[in-house]
Structure formats: C-alpha cells, structure tokens
C-alpha cells in the first residue's frame, strides 16, 4: 500500500514540475488559488493545524479573522508551490527585480568578511526563491540541507531541482551534514538553513509567541564552532511576482557561559527575529504541522 501511495505522490509532483512550468504565469497563479481554496474549504487536518498555529501568532483574532488568515495562508502556501515548479525555467535576471531584500548590505558585508555566513530563516513565503536570489542576484553559491522525503524518488527530484538553482544540497539524515557545513563555513562559504522547527531530542527549547517550542541547535553551534556570521532572515509576499525580505543583524556568540547556555541564547535570538517577521505577515508562514510542545502533548 505504501509503495503505491509513494508512486502516486511522486507522480503528482512530477506532473507539477513538468506541467506548471509550461503554463503562462497568470494561469499558474490562478490554478494555485483554486487548489488552495478547494483544500481550505475541506477543513482538513493541515488547514485546522495552520489555523491553530495562527491563533497563537494573532491571539486577539476572532474565528472570522482566523478563517480569513488561514485561507490567505493556504493561498500563500500554494503560491510557494506554483512558483517553485516554475523557478528552474525562470530567467535568472528576474531574481534581482522580483525579490527586494531590506538590509542586503548586511549579507554582502558578512560575505566580504571571509568568516563564512550562516543564514537562518523560518518557513515564510518562498525560501527557494530567496535561495535563487542569492545564487542569481548576489552571485554566491551556498549549501543547504534537505529532509529526506518519501518516496526516495521525490527527494531526488527536490535535490535535482535545488541543484539546478545553484544550491549544494546535503541530506538531513545522518551526522555527516554538520561536518560538511562546518568545512564550507571555514572556507568562507555560505550556508542557508530553514530553522523554525526541530522536534528531535537535540532541539533547543525557546519561547515563541508566549509558549515553548523547539528549534534546531545547528545554526548556533556552527557559528560557535567556526566563527561564522549568523544572520536571521525573514520573507513575505507582495503582489505577484514580488517577494520582499529582510536580513536581520548578526546574532553574536555570547562572551560568557557554557556551550549549552550560548546555544540556548543564540537560538532564542533567532526565534525572536523569526517571530518579528511572522507577526508582521502571519499569512505567509507555512507551518501546517505541530510546533509547540503543548500541542504535541495533545496526541493520544
């Protein structure tokens, strides 16, 4: 049963990559909105979870506002997929005009320092488009990590897709990724990590919108171990095809404390930067899974 479902999922993604990129841009955007609205109306688990997560981000929102936010959230999420299916076929010159990054100079100065750069960002807007902006507009290759998806052929599609945009992609599973990332940073390279959710035992507990969540320790540990510059980044959508973002100030390694204490303080600083971007544009936060620890405890 599992292998049949895997083949179906992989086939649907394959159709998306093959078909959507051939559609005119307005047609692809309209298709994404129709799919989003259909899924939203069904009120499935993902939509209800998104709404529950948004209720923490916008605590004063009533039921009507939350439903409107979750509908906008699903449209934003499907916009991500429609754009991603089309990205490999896009003219790279568009990355400099479609994406506007506030405080871009902070990133460029960090790159020029030669210390290596870690950019950590949450699941906001289109992080793949932001990656294409880095390789196509800033002109810098970078390394990232991808979760191993099932079926394996789907993971291979994601890797090939991201590599086509100029990214080096390492598998999330196994301990080898951390060592490779550290080597890239020591050589003065750049890595980008989506870092707003980590439910593993190594996740660092942070205060996030007034409750406890876990986020990955990797960005903070890599910065401590290699001396690299750690920069939070947040994104949000404008009217299509525009996307905006901000490079936040460096999260510095504290001067005192144990490695554990330093990691906790730095990860909390990342969480605070992420929260500021998410609070300003909650509809562009694509968190359709459980995140907060007290939500995890609801499971039977």
Q: Topology, please?
A:
Elements (H helix, E strand, L loop, with lengths): L1 H19 L4 H18 L2 H13 L5 H24 L8 H4 E4 L1 H9 L4 E5 L5 H12 L3 E5 L5 H13 L2 E5 L4 H11 L3 E5 L9 E5 L2 E5 L2 H9 L2 E9 L5 E5 L11 H22 L12 H4 L4
Helix pairs in contact: 1-4, 2-4, 3-4, 9-10, 10-11
Rg to the nearest angstrom? 19 Å
Q: Note the beta-strand portion.
A: 15-25%
Shape: globular
Helix share, percent: 40-55%
Span between termini? 25 Å
Arithmetic mean of pLDDT: 91
Explain what the structure shows.
The chain contains 12 helices and 9 strands. By secondary structure, it is of the alpha/beta class. It has a 5-stranded mixed sheet with strand order 1-9-8-2-5, sandwiched between helices. Strand 8 and strand 9 form a beta hairpin. Helix 10 packs across helix 11.
Features:
300 residues; alpha/beta; 5-stranded mixed beta sheet; 9 strands; globular
Short description:
By secondary structure, the chain is of the alpha/beta class.
